[in-house]
Amino acid sequence: MNNPTDTRRSPRVPCDIPVEYHIKSDRPQEGRIVKLGTAGALLTPQEPVPLGTEMVLNFRLPVSNRPIRTACTVRWADERSVGVEFSHLTLQEQEEIWKFHAKESARQRKSRS
Questions:
Q1: Rounded to whole angstroms, what are the CA distances from 90 to 48, 49, 59, 86, 94?
Q2: Complete domains list, the chain, with CATH
Q3: Model confidence over 91-113: pLDDT tens digits?
Q4: pLDDT, tens digit (0-9, with 9 covering 90-100), for 4-33
Q5: Cross-strand partners of 46
Q6: What are phi and psi of 18, to 5 degrees?
Q7: CA torsion angle for 23, 26, 30, 31 (degrees, to 10)?
Q8: pTM for this structure?
Q9: What does the alpha-carbon distance between residue 107 and residue 51 come to, in Å, rounded to a whole number?
Q10: Alpha-carbon distance 47 to 4, whole Å?
């Protein structure tokens, strides 16, 4: 069912991907990406991150193990998770995320049936 208040530009798929993130020039921190789409992600950081914060994420997709490094902005935040919008994904990185999304979506549909 579609959520009329959902303003995402791309669908996201549940996942559990380790991520390293940097805020400004601070030390790298670790978290988990728990939902991933081609335009953004939902992640669980070590500490709360304010709305509007600019970050750099480093992660690898399980399908290809290809490293992805992208700038992003926090568009949604609560005390346990943040929704980020990617700023600089290459076309190849977008394609890798779509492949991962398609594979995970199919796997999850199959496990529900």
A1: 28, 25, 14, 10, 6
A2: 13-112 (2.40.10.220)
A3: 999 899 989 988 888 887 787 77
A4: 344 556 678 999 999 999 998 788 999 999
A5: none
A6: -65, 140
A7: -30
A8: 0.85
A9: 33
A10: 30
* Cβ–Cβ under 8 Å, residues 84 and 43: yes
CB 87 within 8 A of CB 77: no
Average pLDDT, the chain: 87
DSSP letters for the chain: ---TT---SS--EEEEEEEEEEETTSPPEEEEEEEE-SSEEEEE-SS---TT-EEEEEEE-TTT--EEEEEEEEEEE-SS-EEEEES---HHHHHHHHHHHHHHHHHHHHHH-
Residue with tokens 């390293």: 20
Residues with Cβ within 8 Å of 70's Cβ and at least 6 positions away in sequence, in order, are 56, 57, 86, 87, 88, 89, 93
Say how far apart CA 32 and CA 35 lie, in whole Å: 9
